Please model this.
Amino acid sequence: MSRTLYGLRLRVHVQLETMGLFPTGFGSRFWLLIVATFLGFLGEGTVLPALAPHVRHDLGGSDQTVGLAIGIFSFVSLGSRFASGPMADRKGRKAAFLTGLTSCALAATVCLLPLGLAAIYMGRALQGFGEAFLYTGAAAWAVEVAGVRRSGQALGYISCGIWGGTAAGPLVGQWLGSFDRAALMQVIASVVALVLVFQVAEDYKPAAHARGRRWLSGRLVASGLAVGLVNVHYPVVAGFLILHLAGHGNSGPAAYTAYATVILLSRFFLGGLPDRIRPSITFFGGLVAMAIGLLVIAPGPSPTMAVIGAGVLGLGLSFPWSSVASTVVRRTPAGDRGSALGVLTGSFDLFVGVSSLAAGAVAGRFGYSTAFLMGATALIAAAIAGWFVFAPEKTPEPAYVPAMAPLSVSLGTETPVRSPE
Model:
């Protein structure tokens, strides 16, 4: 199918959504997916506080063993991203979502087996596999339930479910008081999420034959680079913010709370901005806010300025992901969206993992301030990648047609569709 014909078809689809002929929107189906996503990540976060003490004290592992138990999750999750997308496209979003939740439940169950460190390694590997499939299935499905023209807001709500579950999980784990109880809680949360997902009807129909890799393009690679470079700062903040600000009024905990809280609130209340204005505006605006926040934090400011800088950083981070991802899903046929989202999230994992090593090396040799400047410098490269993502195409783009634009299809002619830029 040519891009022009696909653009015409998607224009028709958007108009039918607008006229209410497709059951899209933020109804009960959508919110069940958000709750199930929250529960999946709640279970994952619940076991984290007790993982290191359990490995170190109960199982007699070393610090290196703790690092391996934590790191194996990231490596398996990264590799699984590139399998979760094709499965979501070929077997359905529901199949991918259920696979992820089942793997999460099995991960916690394996950790409870009396197999020593082997149980932990297998459990963490299953957890990484499950997280990859959970997110890809949930994101692709939520976009289609909400409607492609609301993709930015839908992805913002998905992010809220992830951040909310990830933030609440450690609190629940500490309250439970032991690794075994935390693992049991993960099993319960995953099973409840499975029950909820089974109740949601899926409209997506997978293609009858493999589509190859027509979705893999230079723009998608640029999108992955943009997403990855934006998040180079994340391991710097997660690993060194509290240490960096310890000598500056000990404002690290308050600053990190501001950072995480603003991200959660912004993605919930402002997640629809890339649907209402050009996503290039929200992307580059978010980069500017992030740069300001990092440059405020880098020199070691007063507690008040540190909290303000962290809040500005969190506000800026709220927009690049949804801006890029919503642009990608709008440009990608439904049968390839899972694969495209897998590439984007895989890029996130890859850059966060590599930048974690780089941040440690830079902070150890040049100090914490330089690590924050490294994160700010990466935003310049993210802006360059973003230019390729949002640059106008010669072929008309179907994704940014106003929702109430008149529908006109002339036989024997090509209907022009307005370019986003």
